[in-house]
Amino acid sequence: MERNTLYRWIAQQLIERISSGNLKPGDRLPGEYQLAKDFHVGRSTIRDALRLLQESEHIEVRNGVGSFVAAPRRAIANPLTLLTSIGTMIEASGFKASAHIEWVRHQQPEAAWSQKLCLNPGEAVVVMGRKRFAGRRCVSFAVNIFSESLVGKKMDQGFEGSIFHYLEENWNISPQYAITRIHAMNKELPWDAMANEILQEPAIMLEQLHYDQNYYPVFLSRNYVQTDFVALQLIQKRVD
C-alpha cells in the first residue's frame, strides 16, 4: 500500500475504534512509537494519520501530553480528506447511527452511470435508496448504484451497517478511494427533488465514484447531506 494511502487507512482504523467505543472521549491514544509498532509503519506515517484526525476534530492534541479522543460534537463533521462511511462518521461524532433502505430497484442505467461504472452495453444496474439517521434525525439520503453483474439480487434482501463492510464480507471488494464532486441541489431534477422531499432541510449533493483495491469503479453514489447538521471540511495545501 502506498504511503499516501496507508496513513489515510490508519486514520480510518482509529476512527472505527472511536465509533465502536474501544476509544472513548477523553481517552489518551498510544504514543507515536507504539502506534508505529502496532501498524508496522514509520512514525512519519503515524504523524500524518494523527494530523488528519486532528483536522477532522476526532482527536485533540495537547502539547507535551499526547493525543486524546475529542468530546462528541453537536454537529457531524465530515472530513472530505477521509473516505469513511456516514455511519462511522455519525457514531464518531457521538450520535447513534442507524439506516433504513427505502427501496432497491433493478433497471437500465442512465447514460452517465454506464460511462462512470464502465458497464457493458445493455448491462443493468441495481439502485438503492437509503436513509441515514443520527439518533432519530434523518441527516442523509443516498442513491447508490451498482452494476447488476457485480451484486446480482443479493442486495434485494437488504442489510445492516456499512456498505463498505457489506461489499468486503460478501464479494471481497474493498473500496479504497473515491472521486467526489460537490453539487448544489436542483429541485427540477428527479433525484434532487426526491431527496429534498425526504430531508426537508437545506442540503447539498456529493456525487462519489468509489474505486476498489484494484482501482476499478465499484459503485456510484449520490449522497444528499443536511448542511445545517453536517459540517463538510476540506483541507487544502498551497501549491505555488
UniProtKB/TrEMBL annotation:
Superkingdom of origin organism: Bacteria
SUPFAM superfamilies: Chorismate lyase-like, Winged helix' DNA-binding domain
InterPro entries named among the record's database cross-references: Bact_HTH_transcr_reg, Chorismate_lyase_/UTRA_dom_sf, Tscrpt_reg_HTH_GntR, UTRA, WH-like_DNA-bd_sf, WH_DNA-bd_sf
Keywords for this protein: DNA-binding, Transcription, Transcription regulation
GO biological process, one term: negative regulation of DNA-templated transcription
HTH gntR-type domain boundaries: 4-72
Pfam families in alphabetical order: GntR, UTRA
Single annotated GO MF: DNA binding
Keyword field contains DNA-binding: yes
Name of this protein: GntR family transcriptional regulator
